[in-house]
């Protein structure tokens, strides 16, 4: 057979096989065209699940008379005009195939009137011939599209349509996704002359109200809200807690730049975050909105535009995963659930770190009269990484111990911790209780030992979920080599230094604030500036310090700072001993 060009009618029907899957595909394409036309109200009428008729009316800017016939032609669009537009798509539609494909497999009537036009005109197009007939009509400002007898001329496609109920469920799903992504538009859905869905417009900053209307009040009442920005990427999400876990994925909505997505990368990142936080095996419920620069995402990779390609796919994946994971972990106390780390996660993209909760806590065994400090075998703790108040050898009760900070003096500014066996003297020192003795410990020395141990034990590096970037001020290559020898990976990229990987087991540390300290310390030494990092260890990590030290051998000799005179003075002041 010789090579020849396909007839336009045949080409349109071939394209229709990709664009028009089922009635829901027609509804999606028509609503997106209305949104691109600036409509603030869209009414959709369905008959017999879309088998018989799909009618849409909007109040958008309309189509001029001399463009009606062109609008039903293939590859005719007002959304893009050159290659630069294709690389930065802001509209929902852009290919110019939808109306031509729909009209090739249905009886389509397009009626429109722009505001500046004195009268409305109607274009009628039917089946394979696709000859457009224009007639004057009565119509308000906006556009009405009537799609009747879908697949009437392609019996093979028509017989694969499901039941009326099933097809309408798919239409409802499309309708809900568009309602979620465009809360400022009023949307109404009618089936067989019965109103089914009505979503009044809400303000863009009151999106939760639209989510409650679409997904349900139970979801919004059990959703964790988070919003995170990072280097031009914005994530706004409502994440369902364990009260709204489901057996199916029918309550998972993700959007990229206002476009509904079923993208594998996004779903994998969210699923991984839930697995790492809770170890869930059921389907979580969530509504996630991702905003990125149009130039960093390619939407022209799927006929129905359900998937996208990100220029920095790994960065986007890890950004979503970390943002969702942080939000879930931050609210575990409120939800009454602790983190569950699976020994064998169901994925191998980025495996979560294994954690160990020791059953005992270390105690410094230096006498109150001064002397050499060491760690002795610890007694069992009732809960958590360190002993609780009820385990103290102090003859007073735990309740009384918490009131010991009452007799404060100008010379001593301290407070008791309700969770551990210590009293905070100041930012640099803590007073630990052991049997009938008190021990003054340097916080920085304790943290330095902890960090040194972590860095020594790391045999490899581990990627950060979110790389940390700083302006490159001309750091020496020797500096980067020093860091690399210590299992750090720092790259020069676009005038910035990016911390990509850190020693295994240290990813939980605050590298976003430590990266600058790391560079300063390594500039003047081949060793890491551990003491400088330890001086900026967050208070929330001190429990991790003691939990880690409790798992180490107990014969290490540590040079704790001790002031026996101050210890005796505080002992008498607090009235701990008779």
UniProtKB/TrEMBL annotation:
InterPro entries: DNA_mismatch_repair_CS (IPR014762), DNA_mismatch_repair_MutL (IPR020667), DNA_mismatch_S5_2-like (IPR013507), HATPase_C_sf (IPR036890), MutL/Mlh/PMS (IPR002099), MutL/Mlh/Pms-like (IPR038973), MutL_C_sf (IPR037198), Ribosomal_Su5_D2-typ_SF (IPR020568). Residues 211-329 form the DNA mismatch repair protein S5 domain. SMART domains: DNA_mis_repair (SM01340). One of its GO terms (biological process) is mismatch repair. CDD domains: HATPase_MutL-MLH-PMS-like, MutL_Trans_MutL. GO terms for molecular function: ATP binding; ATP hydrolysis activity; ATP-dependent DNA damage sensor activity; mismatched DNA binding. It comes from the Bacteria. Residues 339-394 are annotated as: Disordered. The keyword DNA damage applies. Pfam families: DNA_mis_repair, HATPase_c_3. Keywords: DNA damage, DNA repair. Residues 375-385 have a biased composition (Polar residues). The keyword Ribosomal protein does not apply. GO terms for cellular component: mismatch repair complex. Belongs to the DNA mismatch repair MutL/HexB family. This protein is involved in the repair of mismatches in DNA. It is required for dam-dependent methyl-directed DNA mismatch repair. May act as a 'molecular matchmaker', a protein that promotes the formation of a stable complex between two or more DNA-binding proteins in an ATP-dependent manner without itself being part of a final effector complex. This is DNA mismatch repair protein MutL. It comes from Alteromonas halophila.
């Amino acid at each position: 057979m010789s090579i020849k060009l396909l007839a336009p009618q045949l080409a349109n029907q071939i394209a229709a096989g990709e664009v028009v899957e089922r009635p829901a595909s027609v509804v999606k394409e028509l609503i997106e065209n209305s949104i691109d036309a600036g409509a603030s109200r869209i009414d959709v009428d369905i008959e017999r699940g879309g088998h018989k008729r799909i009618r849409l009316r909007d109040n958008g800017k309309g189509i001029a008379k001399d463009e009606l016939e062109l609008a039903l032609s293939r590859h005719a669009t007002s959304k893009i005009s050159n290659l630069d537009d294709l690389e930065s798509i802001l509209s929902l539609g852009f290919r110019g195939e939808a109306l031509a494909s729909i009209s090739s497999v249905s009886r389509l009537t397009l009626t429109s009137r722009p505001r500046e036009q004195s009268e409305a005109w109607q274009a009628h197009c039917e089946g394979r011939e696709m000859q457009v007939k224009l007639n004057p009509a009565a119509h308000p400002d906006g556009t009405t599209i009537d799609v009747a007898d879908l697949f009437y001329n392609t019996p093979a496609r028509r017989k694969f349509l499901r039941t009326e109920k099933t097809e309408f469920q798919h239409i409802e799903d499309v309708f809900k996704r568009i309602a979620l992504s465009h809360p400022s538009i009023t949307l109404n859905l009618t089936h067989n002359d019965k109103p089914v869905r009505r979503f009044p417009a809400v303000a863009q900053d009151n999106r939760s109200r639209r989510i409650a209307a679409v997904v349900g009040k139970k979801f919004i009442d059990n959703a964790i809200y988070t919003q995170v920005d990072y280097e031009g990427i914005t994530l706004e999400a409502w994440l369902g807690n364990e009260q709204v876990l489901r057996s199916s994925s029918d309550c998972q909505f993700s959007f990229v730049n206002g476009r509904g997505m079923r993208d594998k990368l996004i779903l994998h990142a969210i699923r991984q975050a839930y697995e790492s936080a809770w170890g869930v095996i059921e389907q979580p419920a969530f509504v996630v909105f991702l905003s990125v620069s149009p130039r960093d995402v390619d939407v022209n990779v799927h006929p129905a535009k359900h998937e996208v390609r990100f220029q920095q796919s790994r960065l986007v994946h890890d950004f979503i995963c970390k943002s969702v994971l942080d939000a879930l972990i931050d609210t575990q106390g409120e939800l009454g659930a602790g983190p569950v780390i699976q020994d064998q996660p169901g994925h191998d993209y980025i495996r979560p770190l294994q954690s160990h909760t020791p059953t005992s806590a270390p105690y410094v065994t230096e006498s109150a009269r001064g002397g050499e400090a060491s760690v002795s075998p610890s007694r069992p703790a009732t809960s958590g990484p360190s002993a609780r108040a009820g385990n103290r050898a102090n003859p007073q009760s735990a309740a009384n111990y918490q009131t010991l900070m009452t007799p404060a003096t100008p010379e001593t500014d301290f407070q008791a911790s309700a969770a551990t066996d210590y009293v905070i003297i100041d930012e640099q020192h803590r007073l630990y209780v052991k049997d009938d003795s008190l021990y003054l410990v340097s916080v920085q020395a304790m943290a330095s030992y902890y960090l040194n141990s972590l860095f020594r034990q790391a045999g490899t590096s581990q990627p950060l979920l979110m790389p940390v970037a700083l302006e490159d001020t001309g750091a020496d290559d020797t500096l980067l080599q020093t860091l690399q020898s210590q299992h750090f990976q720092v790259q020069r990229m676009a005038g910035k230094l990016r911390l990509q990987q850190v020693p295994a087991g240290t990813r939980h540390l605050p590298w976003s604030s430590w990266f600058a300290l790391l560079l300063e310390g390594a500039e003047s030494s081949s060793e890491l500036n551990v003491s400088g990092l330890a001086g900026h260890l967050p208070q929330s990590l001190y429990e991790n310090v003691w939990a880690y030290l409790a798992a180490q051998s107990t014969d290490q000799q540590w040079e704790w700072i001790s002031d026996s005179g101050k210890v005796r003075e505080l002992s008498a002041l607090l009235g701990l001993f008779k």
